[in-house]
Design brief:
The chain has one helix and nine strands. It has 179 residues and is mainly β. Among the domains are: 1-60 and 163-178; 100-144, no CATH class.
Length: 179
């Protein structure tokens, strides 16, 4: 199967054809693959003296290098993304949880005779229901209901629907000319 050195193709078989190799991140000897090294360099790994790396597309999708309108910038060989993420309060959109209901508190209608609620029933106190504005003890106090935190910090899968195939790279073939 003829190709251009450095060309990557999707291949549906379970083997890499002659002169092609899987895009699996393997390190190769520069001395055995000078033409391919001159195209890839150390963009995908290796020390650049003895070895260089093939792109690793195992479990990844290829994305064009550079930046399109409204898209993120990607360097050649940059790895990014994850198969799962954990949602936190910081990355959820602002929203409100409301709670409502009726609260009924049984109380004794006469004045209480104990200063502690332990083992007692709620009772009134003198002038409890007065409407005098200067009496701060008679002001209504708002009832704050807090909705508790929920969730278990379990990551959610964000993998797009996929089909497993092999990416292969041309190792030996036509050397590409620069234009």
């Amino acid at each position: 199967m003829e190709g251009t050195i450095g060309e990557i193709r999707l291949f549906a078989a379970n083997f890499a054809p002659r002169d092609w190799s899987y895009c699996n991140g393997a390190l190769l000897a520069i001395s055995s693959n000078v033409a391919l090294f001159s195209i890839l360099g150390t963009t995908y790994g290796g020390d650049g003296k003895v070895t260089f790396g093939l792109p690793n597309l195992a479990g990844r999708s290829a994305v064009g290098a550079g930046q399109g309108p409204g898209l993120s910038y990607y360097d050649l060989g940059e790895k990014t993304g994850a198969n799962s993420t954990t949602l936190t309060i910081m990355n959820l959109p602002p929203h409100t949880h409301t709670a409502g209901g009726n609260i009924v508190i049984p109380a004794f209608s006469e004045e209480g005779d104990s200063a502690t609620p332990a083992n007692n029933v709620l009772a009134s106190k003198g002038s409890m229901y007065t409407s005098q504005g200067s009496d701060s003890s008679t002001k209504a106090t708002p009832l704050n209901i807090q909705v508790g935190v929920t969730g278990g910090s379990t990551p959610i899968n964000i993998t797009q629907p996929s089909l497993g195939m092999n990416y292969i790279i041309c190792m030996y073939g036509i050397f590409p000319s620069r234009s």
